[in-house]
Write a structure and sequence with these properties.
By secondary structure, the chain is an alpha/beta fold. The chain is built from 15 helices and eight strands.
Length: 443
């Protein structure tokens, strides 16, 4: 089975640039695709200084849903948004004041890779952090999801008026140009050794090293939580009438593009199981959908581990079977934990995701709308990331509903919800109203 390789180099244009990220792309592009991927054949996609987060998301999503192994080589700089103080990959137009709108949230990487089979995804990163991001990362591990092997380093900000070089990623590329691809852990160690030699003159704090099981700031890596709330990016609103903004600005390599067809060709990994309470890493997760003090199983209750069955059903194209199994678990969670519990919200989220994977935009849109309303009714704030995420995903799926009558019905509900949850992208409510007006004209 062919592999997929995504080469991504991004950094701001102008004085905000900390690292010459794109300089490593020619070296990586000179490596034979099978060597980059570790497979007999591979498709390679290259993103050089993309302008828009949605352009990056589109290519990442296509790579994540492609069958076969996925290897990412990511070079750039990390910055925090001023509102939520979360790390983002800075893009060409990013400034400290516009991180939230022009940079790519790091958590989107884990979100898009979460359904991939364990052991099928490897990510190499060479990142430089600005002062705020460096302080933030001092006690917080940077991860790409529990099923993804992440290797690389995060370097501190360079001295003023200095643009750093991606020495680690350049070392990775140089080692691979030999035509030999060692095990990722061995390649990582060799690249670290070579990069440290090249940067021996650089002064300042030591790099933060990323590798499975690697200690971080003197502490062991905390275990990844069993349940990760899906925090999707803002909806690709323009997909109703046009491609995502900035898509044409992406520079693609001349190699064959990544297949963009949706699953079931790409077999998702077992879906995450929610704990009894929202996770707070590094606290160990609570066993999935369990009743404290009780180990026996009620007659007729779903099997103790449904995720393998769900994965197999999706892989075989039996989407209705997968949805039926999720519905059973949702009912079980409702009986055990009550409406608005994290367990119920989890299964609602999985159900909406599965409908999307099945190509049923209407059902997926309804699922995300219901999830958003349930979260709001449970007392979550309209600006909470999980609420915004659900509405944004509903908005995106609504743009794919082909039946005009269904689109009008769902659009009216979405418009009411958008009044409460405007989201992070300006003009979302206006967009719904414009589309509804066009649909009414068609009627």
């Amino acid at each position: 089975m062919p592999g997929t390789v995504l080469l991504l180099a991004a950094s701001p244009v102008g004085k905000g640039c900390l690292v010459d990220a794109a300089s490593v792309l020619p070296v990586l592009a000179a490596v034979a695709p099978p060597v980059l991927s570790g497979t007999d054949t591979a498709n390679v996609v290259e993103l050089a200084d993309p302008l828009e987060p949605q352009a990056v998301l589109t290519r990442l999503r296509a790579a994540a849903t492609a069958p076969g192994p996925l290897t990412m080589f990511l070079t750039g700089q990390l910055q925090l948004d001023r509102r939520q103080r979360l790390p983002h990959l800075a893009l060409a137009r990013t400034t400290p004041a516009t991180v939230r709108y022009t940079a790519f949230p790091w958590r989107w990487i884990a979100d898009e890779l979460r359904l991939r089979p364990p052991g099928s995804t490897t990510v190499f990163v060479d990142l430089h952090a600005d002062a705020d991001a460096w302080e933030f990362l001092a006690g917080r591990p940077l991860t790409a999801g529990r099923s993804t092997e992440l290797y690389g380093r995060v370097a501190p900000p360079p001295s003023r008026r200095t643009v750093a070089q991606p020495a680690y990623m350049r070392a990775v590329a140089t080692l691979l140009r030999s035509g030999h691809r060692p095990h990722p852990a061995e390649l990582h160690q060799q690249a670290l050794t070579r990069a440290s030699g090249e940067e021996s003159a650089r002064r300042g704090a030591a790099d933060l090293v990323l590798a499975p099981g690697q200690s971080w700031a003197g502490q062991p890596w905390p275990p990844a939580p069993e349940f990760t709330t899906v925090t999707a990016p803002p909806a690709e609103f323009a997909t109703v009438t046009a491609p995502p903004p900035g898509f044409a600005s992406v520079t693609a390599s001349p190699r064959p593009p990544v297949p963009s067809q949706a699953p079931p060709a790409a077999a998702p990994a077992p879906l995450p199981v929610p704990p009894a309470t929202p996770p707070t890493p590094p606290t160990p997760p609570v066993p999935p959908v369990s009743v404290p003090g009780r180990t026996e199983r009620r007659a007729g209750a779903p099997s103790p581990d449904p995720h393998g069955e769900i994965t197999a059903a999706v892989r075989d194209g039996r989407h209705e079977d997968a949805l039926a199994l999720v519905a059973r678990w949702e009912r079980e969670a409702l009986r055990t934990h009550g409406r608005g519990s994290e367990q119920v919200l989890h299964w609602m989220e999985v159900r909406a995701d599965l409908a999307m994977l099945a190509g049923d935009a209407e059902r997926s849109c309804r699922g995300w709308l219901a999830l958003a309303v349930t979260r709001l009714d449970a007392g979550q704030a309209p600006g909470a990331p999980e609420v915004e995420s659900a509405v944004d995903r509903a908005h995106h799926q609504w743009g794919r509903v082909a039946d005009p009558a269904r689109a009008r019905e769902l659009g009216s509900e979405l418009a009411r919800l958008r009044q409460r949850v405007p989201g992070r992208r300006e003009g979302a409510l206006d967009h719904v109203r414009r589309q509804l007006s066009q649909l009414q004209t068609q009627a």
